[in-house]
From TrEMBL:
It comes from the Bacteria. It catalyses: L-ornithine + H(+) = putrescine + CO2. Signal peptide: none annotated. This is ornithine decarboxylase. It comes from Undibacter mobilis. The modification N6-(pyridoxal phosphate)lysine is found at K51. Residues 29-262 form the Orn/DAP/Arg decarboxylase 2 N-terminal domain.
Length: 380
């Protein structure tokens, strides 16, 4: 949590402003994060994953610093363009696209598309003739706190056939992409994926198709309860893996940080609505907040992401509690399998600060479930 956010929230409380839960994002932190990524892999282009936080303030800042953008929809493409990015700095990175959306992106000037099967290549060939494509390969995500599923990507051996098919369809096979899993704390996780990418490069070359780019994906973590390696540590490990598997012929590279770019820049202020027990004999309290899974904390699903929570009573004795949101939905429980330690003196009306919430919060709260308004977000 930055001192700027502390001061901002303190000033709001002193002025009596209380508008329910609020996310505050410090743009100076985003700026510092971009600089760190750019320096960690200086020969790599940074494509910010817009889905992590598509706020105009964030996109405009990054566009002004020279960032490129990884987009998942036509709407995100339009957001990046409105923020000042040029079409050559935008990729349509979703492997699941309607053909009319590909056509719209092409009309907007986008020439870089992700694919992972022949059918998707055919759609791109029809709607975006001559465009560059990169094929996403499957990655096991070992070491990630949130491993990705098999929804995106194909086996490396199949990727060669997909790229050859794209070539024959009139597209430009540009490279390979992969994702090592969200919140990847193992800086060596890219090694195996790069070995697979190098194998695809080699086999494509034997078929007369010369690839030139490796999209290293995202997965760069932000700090929640556990410390994470520095961006520089990841940069060094990735460069060594590139040299190991590609020798002196290192390809062009792209990284797609999302969480690692904005996660630690944001903090949510929330209020305790209720503290109760389910029986007189129950030792575990239930603490209900005015924000839950449907208000922006969807990543607590399966308790995968455990946020750092600060209270005004942290000097008091602690005891485990079940933490839940305010909605009339039984799924709106944040932490129950592994109860969260909070002060025994916690009271209704106390303000809690949830750190590391700059990514994947404001967008997950876009719908006013139960009539509760979307998460108010302020950028400073």
């Amino acid at each position: 949590m930055t001192e700027r956010i502390r001061e901002f929230l303190r000033d709001r409380r002193e002025r009596g402003i209380d508008e329910g839960p609020v996310l505050v994002v410090d743009l100076d932190v985003v700026k510092d994060n971009y600089t760190a990524f750019a320096k960690a892999l200086p020969d790599t282009r940074v494509f910010y994953a817009v889905k992590a936080n598509p706020a105009p303030e964030v996109l405009s800042l990054l566009a002004s610093m020279g960032s490129c953008f990884d987009t998942a929809s036509v709407q995100e493409i339009e957001m990046a363009l409105a923020a000042g990015a040029t079409p050559d700095r935008i990729s349509f990175g979703n492997t699941i696209k309607k053909e009319r959306d590909i056509a719209r992106a092409y009309a907007l000037g986008i020439r870089l598309f992700a694919i992972d099967c022949q059918a998707e290549a055919d759609k791109v060939a029809r709607a975006a003739p001559g465009a560059k494509v990169f094929c996403r390969i499957l990655c096991d995500g070992a070491g990630a706190e949130w491993p990705l599923s098999r929804k995106f990507g194909c086996e490396p051996a199949m990727a060669v056939d997909v790229l050859e098919h794209a070539f024959k369809a009139g597209l430009e096979p540009y490279g390979i992409s992969f994702h090592v899993g969200s919140q990847q704390r193992n800086q060596h996780a890219w090694d195996r994926a790069l070995a697979q990418a190098a194998a695809v490069f080699k086999e494509c070359g034997e078929r007369g198709i010369n690839l030139s780019m490796v999209n290293l994906g995202g997965g760069f973590p932000t700090k929640y309860l556990k410390n994470v390696p520095t961006v520089r540590t990841y940069g060094n490990a990735i460069f060594k893996a590139l040299r190991k598997h590609f020798g002196n012929r290192i390809p062009e590279t792209i990284i797609e940080p999302g969480r690692g770019m904005v996660g630690n820049a944001g903090m949510i202020e929330t209020e305790v609505v209720l503290v109760s027990k389910k029986s007189e004999e129950d030792d575990v309290r239930w603490v209900y907040l005015d924000i839950g899974k449907f208000g922006g904390l969807a990543e607590t699903m399966d308790e995968s992401i455990r946020y750092a929570i600060k209270t005004p009573r942290d000097a008091d004795a602690m005891a485990p509690c079940v933490l839940a949101g305010p909605t009339c939905d039984s799924a709106d429980v944040l932490y129950e399998k592994q109860p969260y330690p909070l002060p025994v003196s916690l009271e209704i009306g106390d303000k809690l600060l949830i750190e590391g919430t700059g990514a994947y919060t404001s967008t997950y709260s876009a719908v006013a479930f139960n009539g509760l308004p979307p998460l108010k977000t302020i950028h400073i």
